[in-house]
Amino acid sequence: MSPAIIAPSILSADFARLADEIGSVEKGGADLLHLDIMDGHFVPNITIGPPVVASIRKCTTLPLDAHLMIEDPARYVDELIRAGVNWISVHVEADHHLHRTIQHIQSQGVRAGVALNPATPIHALEEVLPNLDFVLVMSVNPGFGGQQFIPSTLQKIRKLREEITSNRYRARIEIDGGVDTGNLAELLAAGADMIVAGSAVFKSRTSPCEAVQEMKEIARFQTAATERL
Question: Which of 36, 39, 65, 193 is catalytic?
Answer without folding.
Answer: 36
